[in-house]
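Lay summary. Proteins are chains of building blocks that fold into shapes, and those shapes determine what they do. In this project we predict the shape from the chain. Here is one chain we studied, written as its sequence of building blocks.
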Amino acid sequence: MSDIRGGHDPRQEYRVEKITSKEIKTIEYPERMTAELIDQWAEGIPLYSEADPKNPEWRSTPVRTIDLSSQGYGEVHIKMESDKRSNPTGTMKDRPAWEFACGYRDFARRLSLKMTRDKRISPSDVKIPRFSLITAGNEGLAIARACQKYNLPPPKILMDHHTSQEALSFLTNEYAEIYTGDLSIKALTHQEINTLTKNKNGVDLTSLILNDRNAVFYDWHVHEAFNEKPAIIFMPYGSGRLMDGYSYWQHRTGQNAVRGTRDPRLRIDPLRVADMSIVGVEPAKMDRTIADKAAAPFKPFLLLNDNDRAYLREQHLSGRFTGTKLALEEEIEEAFEYFLNHDIEAEPTGAIGLAMYLRFFRDKLIDHREKILVINTGRGELYEATHVKEKRVYEHK
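And here is the predicted shape, written in a compact code that computers can read:
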């Protein structure tokens, strides 16, 4: 393990074409399954109903209303994913982190069933699955906490080499293996991500599709938002997964409507969902933006793109404004300042949806009779540790 406060340790470099990684922290963990681990994971990780509103998998996050009339705008509603009663680390990334833990639970249950059927299989015959992922911090932290809570293998997280020493210092106290590299050079393949995190024969979560992420990562959140009956929903785009989840559920809800079925979590007319515009927002300036969690220069593993969203619009499954937009840095700063003035707990990234609402309002695209919802994706403990306690507002100013 190298000391993050010291210089570069050349012994800790692993080269993939032109990309190298620096090992910041490793954690010892067993390589093989045991009967104890099977029991811990299979029985210790809860199993909830996937869509029963009477037994929700997630506590609903609150919606705050702020009035920006005195600033020349209007009334806008903010969905507060920073509420730690719902998201323990303060961001929406607790949702995929929970699904990650559930994957280990289901793995242990399948293994138990196989061992019951075939007595020749021993727990020690089975390697423990190890996972890697690229993260700006919040998802890595959320997964690390979930893994520690249920005694799962620590995640192997890959961060950009421009990550601040303060952030790395914070994360080295968490239950995760940490590597850094220059992520601006190229879009990485899953093989490269695994190599950079010393995860030979492991699996990269960043690119994984079989975990049905569009359907399950943010499904409860999406239905909560739909039930607010907004005309437009603004949100950070970032990796695209949150917006993909909204698009998936708009499409599925439309299919359910013509088949005479509906998700039990949906409390409104399914046809109302098809009228909603879903707007994902990215910073126009990817380099050194204050909305750093929404700045993903490469998105090689997107499931949906502009063509899919055009299909949703043409099929009347989504509203006319549905798509992605670029917010200027000064717009993001203005929006974040409004959040601060109204005591909205958020990172600058969480305010980027409000930035686009402000532009829509200035361009007279907002109907004052309609409800507008902005998704504040949260304020993570990493941001609080490196910014809030020191009363710094903008990371790169």
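What the prediction tells us: The mean pLDDT is 91.
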